[in-house]
Amino acid sequence: MSGIVSYGAYIPKYRIDRKLIYKAMGWLNPATFMPGEKAVANYDEDSVTMAVAAGIDCLNGIDREKVDAVFFASTTPPYVERQNAEIMASAFDCRADIRTADFTDTLKAGTTAVLSAVDAVKAGSAKNVMVCTGDMRLGKAGSAQEEIFGDGAAALLIGDNGVVAEFGGSFSVSYDFVDHWRGTGERFDQQWEDRFIRDEGYTRFIVEALQGLTKKCGMESSALSSVAYPCLYAGDFKKIAGTLGLSESQCVDPLAGQVGYTGTADPLMHLVGALEAAKPGDRIAVVGFGAGADAVLFEVTEEIEKTRADRRGIRKHLAARRELGSYEKMAAFRNLLPTEKGIRGDTVAFTALSTLWRNRKEVMGLCGSRCKACGTPQYPVQRVCVNPDCGVIDEMVPYRFSDRKGALFTYTGDNLAFSPNPPAIYGFVDFEGGGRYWFDLTDVDLEEVEVDMAVEMSFRKKYVDEKSGIHGYFWKAVPVMV
Question: Is residue 254 classed as helix, strand or coil in its secondary structure?
């Protein structure tokens, strides 16, 4: 039996009221106003860091040595020639003998990656495949996309042991249907006419895929407990349900009003939301839309209850919100506004890739060492134990700090050092079980920081070397989500 073994999600803490966006740019296109709010990634987040956060949520309590492959789906990867899935595998501290792959260029890449993972598990070429999706799409200022698009990520572990939702079948349709596009080197999404997208896209492809799925699986649409499908138009969302004979209770409520449309992550985020409320025996269908559609069926098993307590998923992330009260700050986070960085912020040190390679487990996986003689954890990796009562040499074993919580020992709010969200905040973290190191703090205001504050690690962008096209990643400290 193959299917979903575990699930996770991530929604950035910052949320902006769409009224602020409309107030700033609505004069350019008065018809763009949408109600609600959307999730906005912090300045040090991107599609990879969000997907890593979702993956860590998914892997909570699971031995990472058991992961045989990591797939990443996104239309906004930071690299087009450097495998993004491998960056994530390094952040997860996975084994070296695994398979990694990027899925991109279409919004249904997430469901396509899931189907590829299911095929790999069924074929026996992998026992457990991690599928992570994340998108941070940009719309031009004053466009409808600027209000619609939100940031987020989701992750599924596909395997054949301890399955919480069994794979029940799939049906796909593929068409070169151009509704949205973005050429090489372009930052902003472009869109064709709305009525064409509604009439020829959503209301045809989603219906065709779901009807094909139910027919292939020999069932009626009434047998489905939950159905998740994307549609940016409220009237057409109901129209699709009516065509398929779905009741309102069967349709998973869209996250558009709370998070926004999250691209490749959207179907898997809604699937995670459905799993959070599901009970054994429920049948959940999820649709990925883009260049056609993928419809995928899962049936929930008795194992579902074992995962809920340890997953943040959609619900906890929705609750852990922070108000972003400035359109200009959102634009600065996206590097859409040239901002004064000062002398300290204008120069980015060249990335020594050979050094990064040698220290990859320490930098990307936050792996240190633990003394075999006295058990003291230490970061970075040491040859000589730092414990003054020990001091043994070359008696170390690997020790991962990324999944350890800690307490803030001391901190500084620095108004001289450049930060896109000043002041720069950093301090020393004492880890549970031992170990201390210096980290930047993020997703928190200086007024909220205090000594002994509980923190956890979050994989973030440390810098972007625009001249060389290098995205530097490391771990930062964030307040523990309650």
Answer: coil
Could you identify the residue written with the tokens 């049948």?
283
Query: Contact 280/300 with Cβ under 8 angstroms?
Result: yes
Using a 10 angstrom Cβ sphere, with 0-12 exposed, 13-18 middle and 19 or more buried, the burial of residue 434 is middle
Place of tokens 């210096």: 438
pLDDT digits (tens, 9 = 90+) for 240-278: 999 999 999 999 999 999 999 999 999 999 999 999 999
Q: What token pair was written down for 141?
A: 């200022």
Domain boundary assignment for the chain: 3-333, 342-366+401-479
pTM: 0.96
Comparing CA positions, the residue from 57, 63, 260 lying closest to residue 147 is: 260
Per-residue pLDDT of 466-476, as tens digits, reads 888 899 999 99
The correct answer on CATH 3.40.47.10 for the domain covering 3-333 is yes
CATH topology classification for 342-366+401-479: OB fold (Dihydrolipoamide Acetyltransferase, E2P) (2.40.50)
- Asked if the domains 3-333 and 342-366+401-479 are classified in one and the same CATH topology, the answer is no
